[in-house]
Structures are given as C-alpha cells and as structure tokens.
Amino acid sequence: MAEGSLAGFATLEELMEEYMPPEKLQHARRVLYGLNVGELVKGIDLDPVLCGRALELDFDLRTAAFRAAPEQMRPPRVVRIGLIQNKIVLPTDAPFTEQAKAIRERVGQMLETAGQAGVKVVCLQEAWHMPFAFCTREKHWCEFAESAENGESVSFCQTAAKRWGMVVICPILERDAAHNDTVWNTAVVIGHNGNIIGKHRKNHIPRVGDFNESTYYMEGNTGHPVFETAFGRIAINICYGRHHPMNWQAFGMNGAELVFNPAATVGDLSEPLWPVEARNAAIANSYFVAAINRVGTEVFPREFTSGDGKPAHKDFGHFYGSSYVAAPDGSRSPSLARHKDGLMVADIDLNLCRQVAGWSGAAKDGQRTSGASR
C-alpha cells in the first residue's frame, strides 16, 4: 500500500470506482460532486504524449471541464487553468540551496506539462519552494525567504510565464527588504508576459497544533485584492483563510471570478473539511475556486513540540494533496492523488459566475438574485 494513499487508493473517487457498479457510481457522484449545467463534470481529452509524460515522470495528471449555459449576446469565456501539488524532493537536512533547486526542477516538469497542455493560469501550492518548516519554530528556515520582486523562485516562475504565455501564481515565503526584512507568507501574481502584476499576503495565521506560523510571520497587510489578468479577475485566499467565510466574501465583493486557495494542511487536522470548504465558497460567492494542497510527509532533523501535550516528534503529519476545482453552481472536479505530485488541468467558463449570481447582478434590495435552486 502506497504511503499516504487512501486505503491503497490514490483518491476517494478511485476507491468508489473499485467497489461501486457504474450505474450506482454516477448517482453517488451526482450527490457528492453535483451537476454542471445538468450533467456530471467530464474530463478533457489531452494529447496522449502529455499523459505519457506524466506516467514517465510519475505525477498524477487529471482533468475537468466546467461549462456555462450558451448565451445569445455573449460568447463563452473559457479559461484553461492548472493546479500543481508537489512533495519536497530532498530530505530536510540537505543543503538549502540543493533543496530549493531540486524542488524547482520537479515543479518545472509539471509547469512545462501545463504549458504544453494550453494552461493559461496556473497556481502552485503554499510556500512551494521550501519545506513547510513552520512547525519547528526554528528561525534558520527563514533563509528560504526571498524577494517578491526578484527572488529566485519568482524569477523561475516569470520564465515559465513568458515561455508559455500563462499567468503564474507563485506563493513564497517573502522577505520584505524595504521594511526591515519583515517576513510574510505571500502569493506573487505573475502576468502572462512575465511581468509582476501584484502580490497578496496571507491574512489569517493558524495557531493550532503544529501550525506555529506566527513564529515566522503575522497577518498580512494587503487586504483582499483582486488582480485583473488577461484571463479573468483572480484572487488568492492563502491556506487558513479558507476557514473564514467573510474572507471569501471580501474577494467576491471586490470582483473575483476565480479564487485560488494554495494550502499546506494535514490529514488529522482538516481532511474532512477539505472537500467542502472550497465548494461552499464557490457556491456562496458565485465564483470558481481552485484548492491546492501540499503532498507528502516532511521529516525534520530535530524533534519539536507545540505546547499541545503531544510527545516530541519530527514531522508535521501527512499533507494529503487532493487538489480540486469547484464551480459556482455547486459542481466540483475529482481530486488529485492523496499521496503523489500532481497537475490538475481544468477548463472553466467564467460566464457561469454571472449566470449563477443572477443575470441582473445584485438586486436593488440587496438580496442575491440567484439562478440556483432554492
């Protein structure tokens, strides 16, 4: 049984497929994952070469397509997006420069596949360029922090953005040299020409169990920005912010059509919440949500405790991946694997946002004019 799998299966969907007859499985999928314009969410036919590349490089590659109802006065606004989840590559006691280089090389393989697949907006996981060492409370991990303007990981993503003409969301540990080297948990938004559009800093910091992140950074100061890109209005709700409904609401009120939730969360803490939180946010705010979670178990050189009464230990627990996309009509994609690197490619028709919110926008009395069933 693969470490980190779900009873030997990569995803809950694969487990259900194994034990449920097809005619019953479709009913379960309808209840669990909803219908998109009256149908189950279907996949995309990608070039077999790309599928073979994923097998060769051993990462999970899955697809989904979300439609909107045809309109007479407006053409479809289909955008192909990508979600990338990844393990660290080298052990955490390896030299930091080697760890960072190995992660970039691995993520680069999936970024290249995304570009070849025609992805126009791709998001990486929270602090993708380093181990999620914030459980340890050891300050030397701050060496991984870098400039949001010209850091090595940001420059790496700029190169990919220019090469493939795609927007790249690059979540990093940021060192703000202009403000006394303050450290932030930041998502840098890179335009399809390689230009930096802007950044958003994580505005809710967990203080639960081993999530000792306040040792490294505090709540961000960027509010709830929405970034105008060539492919739609995008926001980033970093990790723990997904637990706060008004956080999601603020991005929606500021005009977001697509909100990414790059995260790092472990099974014992949040897995029952993970399949529904992004979906709930999409339904409540009439936008698409793309939820990306780190994957793997990261073991650190020294034991640590978190003041929660548990014995000293060296790992955070298993980051369970399971990245997925949710639509404003309540439908959602299957998940990426729980135990391996992965790339989700999804076509989303942004027209669905306005269709679900109501053709006339906000009602005069302030009540939502929802196109969804009551």
TrEMBL record:
Gene3D superfamilies: Carbon-nitrogen hydrolase
Matching InterPro entries: Aliph_Amidase/BUP, C-N_Hydrolase, C-N_Hydrolase_sf
A biological process from GO: beta-alanine biosynthetic process via 3-ureidopropionate
Hydrolase recorded as keyword: yes
Pathway participation: Amino-acid biosynthesis; beta-alanine biosynthesis
Lineage: Eukaryota, Viridiplantae, Chlorophyta, core chlorophytes, Chlorophyceae
Coiled-coil spans in chain: none
Similarity-based family: Belongs to the carbon-nitrogen hydrolase superfamily. BUP family.
Protein name: Beta-ureidopropionase
Name of the top EC class for this enzyme: hydrolase
SUPFAM superfamilies the record matches: Carbon-nitrogen hydrolase (SSF56317)
Start and end residues of each CN hydrolase domain: 79-350
Keywords assigned by UniProt, alphabetized: Hydrolase
The enzyme's E.C. designation: 3.5.1.6
One GO MF term: beta-ureidopropionase activity
Catalytic function, reaction form: 3-(carbamoylamino)-2-methylpropanoate + H2O + 2 H(+) = (R)-3-amino-2-methylpropanoate + NH4(+) + CO2; 3-(carbamoylamino)propanoate + H2O + 2 H(+) = beta-alanine + NH4(+) + CO2
